[in-house]
Amino acid sequence: MLDIALKQICFAREITLSLLDGLSDDDYFAMPVGSPTHIAWQVGHLAMAEYGLCLFRMRGRQPDDLQLMPGAIRKAFSRGSVPEADRSKNPSVAEIRALMTKIHEQVLVELPALPAAVLEEPTEMPYTATPTKLGALLFCAQHELLHAGQIGLLRRLLGKPPIR
């Protein structure tokens, strides 16, 4: 089942990255009329969530995690945080994208080495299908696709063409 969860996580990331192609830094922080969010927040949130669901929940906090996912970044993009349109109050697009890439790469290093028994351990919400660590991994892919949909909608509101 771990291989299925990893394939789903990677598939969701491919969709997200395709939606980010061709966007300018200005596009990342634009908040179309009526929108409570922007693309930069969506990307930062996905990085934070992948760290939480795929690394922290699987093996707890590690000594290097503060460099991987700094506390200020985690707070800025966690569930319930409010997207800030002022670019000066946010990390740069390059920093957010680098964070997203670095965390995903770490997930691809660590998850394949997880013992199967770890996946059966219980976890709290959010999860999908089963209240286990495997359920958290499965939720990670679904969560990313949900936010990819939001990125896709923001793209369209910014006048960008749909992704084919």
From TrEMBL:
Residue ranges of every copy of the DinB-like domain listed in the record: 12-151
Top-level taxon: Bacteria
One Pfam family this sequence matches: DinB_2
Protein's organism: Pirellula staleyi (strain ATCC 27377 / DSM 6068 / ICPB 4128)
SUPFAM superfamilies: DinB/YfiT-like putative metalloenzymes
InterPro entries: DinB-like, DinB/YfiT-like
Listed name of the protein: DinB-like domain-containing protein
